[in-house]
Amino acid sequence: MIRTEELTKVYDGVKAVDSLNLTVEKGEVFGFLGPNGAGKTTAIGMMVGLLEPTGGKCFVNGIDVTKNPLEVKKITGYLPDGVGFYPNLTAVQNLKYFSRFYGMKDSEAETRIKGLLEYVGLGNVDKPVGSYSRGMKQRLGLAQALLNDPDVLFLDEPTNGLDPQGVIQFRKIIKEQAEKGKTVFFSSHILDEVQHVCSTIGIISKGVLVARGTTDEVRKKMSKDETVTIIVKVKGDMPRMSDPRIINAVYNNGSAVIQASDDIRDAISEELFSKNMRVRELRLEEKSLEEIFLETVYRSE
Ligand SMILES: Nc1ncnc2c1ncn2[C@@H]1O[C@H](COP(=O)(O)OP(=O)(O)OP(=O)(O)O)[C@@H](O)[C@H]1O
């Protein structure tokens, strides 16, 4: 579980993260979404104990990150944006090096590393990491983040540089980790990426969390459009509708696109029924979260 209270980071008088209040429950896969420079990496840096907050607090499984960063490191895994390894060492050698920080015995580490490398799709690779592609480094980064079998996983733009097959494998791994009861904090600037794996999302813009909830809740909260669009298709000619809540309507032979102040589908269907019309389609056209995200977050950049 992750909890932040008024978490703030100021760089040169500018708030990179501004009073972040957030709770991510155990087993939740939380998507932290925002455009470049929104403050995602800075917020994660404070949550994993690498950056000191200017103000506020952060707790991981109830442990105060600023007061006990080492305790927090034991129970967290972190895949940074642009993960770094020793280029002359192999994946096994790199991970063995990291395993010593967790006080793992060599034999225990060897078994775990072998299993993890297979898990992330690097089972048969035995060359120095310097010759790895970006995607391979991401895979190794994920193995490193899982090395200590952490309760809480922080993944900063984890699918960057992965090919489509790698993206699917990563999503599968993230879901499996959540099923095991791990908390996953996943940052991205791509909405589609988080929608696939996250149960909840938060949108950060200019350091401020502007919305938080399920994708549906966030979509409703961020939608500034007060009107709804209803698509109607009938058999035969579409008659004019008389509901006073209609703001605008475009009629076209057997169909209509109706803009109304409210969801008036029931009234439309009753009116059509009273005119003995056969309804072929009657649906609400909702804006996708992607459209709303682009309009609200990117437009304000
Ligand atoms: N060490 C630093 N010194 C000064 N300003 C910084 C520093 N690190 C980040 N910033 C600024 O803080 C803001 C947030 O940056 P951050 O890297 O956290 O954003 P981000 O959402 O992770 O972006 P990206 O998706 O590009 O990684 C930006 O305006 C950035 O320029």
Number of E-state strands: 14
Please identify the top-level CATH class of the largest domain: Alpha Beta
Helix and strand string, N-terminal first? Answer: EEEHEEHEHHHEHEHEEHEEEHEH
Distance between the termini: 31 Å
Radius of gyration: 25 Å
Approximate shape: elongated
How would you sum up the major sheet? 6 strands, mixed
* CATH H-tier superfamily of the largest domain: P-loop containing nucleotide triphosphate hydrolases
Percentage of residues in helical conformation: 25-40%
CATH architecture field of the largest domain: 3-Layer(aba) Sandwich
Helix/strand/pairing category: alpha/beta
Query: Overall pLDDT, averaged?
Result: 92
User: Strand portion, in percent?
Assistant: 25-35%
In DSSP terms, counting alpha (H) and pi (I) runs of 4 or more, how many helices?
Answer: 10
Protein name: ABC transporter ATP-binding protein
InterPro entries: AAA+_ATPase (IPR003593), ABC_transporter-like_ATP-bd (IPR003439), DrrA1/2-like_C (IPR025302), P-loop_NTPase (IPR027417)
Family: Belongs to the ABC transporter superfamily.
Organism: Methanooceanicella nereidis
Q: Would you give an account of this structure?
A:
GO terms for molecular function: ATP binding; ATP hydrolysis activity. Belongs to the ABC transporter superfamily. Keywords: ATP-binding, Nucleotide-binding, Transport. InterPro entries: AAA+_ATPase, ABC_transporter-like_ATP-bd, DrrA1/2-like_C, P-loop_NTPase. It comes from Methanooceanicella nereidis. By secondary structure, this protein is α/β, with parallel strands linked by helices. The protein folds into two domains: 221 residues, P-loop containing nucleotide triphosphate hydrolases (Rossmann fold, 3-Layer(aba) Sandwich), CATH 3.40.50.300; 64 residues. Helix content is 35%, strand content 30%. The chain is built from ten helices and 14 strands. The strands form three sheets. It has a six-stranded mixed sheet with strand order 6-7-8-3-9-10, with helices on both faces. The two termini are 31 Å apart. Bound molecules: adenosine-5'-triphosphate. Adenosine-5'-triphosphate (ATP) binds next to helix 1.
